[in-house]
Specification:
Number of helices: 7
Mean pLDDT: 86
Order of helices and strands: HHHHEEHHH
Number of strands: 2
Oligomer: single chain
Strand order of the largest sheet: 1-2
Radius of gyration: 14 Å
Largest sheet: 2 strands, antiparallel
Structural class: mainly alpha
Helix content: 40-55%
Distance between the termini: 18 Å
């Protein structure tokens, strides 16, 4: 989370997958470095289980579509924060992907 990867809920399932070992390089890198946009998109797609492919969308459109999907999904338990929350925090995803005002300007002035 300290590496800028706090935009998603770190569920017990994700923790168990990492503990047991996984072939997913993205899961291995979560606490090593900030994920790149392509990796964020891939992980978000896995977490959301989108009914349609989102690969063709721009980053801004991708976030907008993820926001629509997340608004209709139940909250999950985040083991890092020890609370229920949406599986993806859209504002923090914008910052991680450097999309829009919240992603480009706010991190600089705060």
């Amino acid at each position: 989370a300290g590496k800028g990867n706090d935009w998603f809920a770190y569920t017990p399932v994700i923790h168990r997958m990492r503990e047991a070992g996984t072939l997913s390089k993205i899961l291995d890198e979560l606490d090593e470095r900030s994920l790149e946009n392509s990796e964020i998109r891939k992980l978000a797609g896995l977490l959301i289980s989108s009914p349609q492919p989102l690969d063709h969308l721009s980053d801004r459109q991708f976030i907008k579509e993820i926001a629509k999907i997340v608004s209709g999904t139940p909250w999950v338990y985040d083991a890092r924060r020890q609370e229920m929350r949406p599986v993806v925090h859209i504002g923090k995803m914008r910052v991680a992907m450097k999309v829009g005002f919240r992603g480009k300007v706010l991190p600089v002035i705060c």
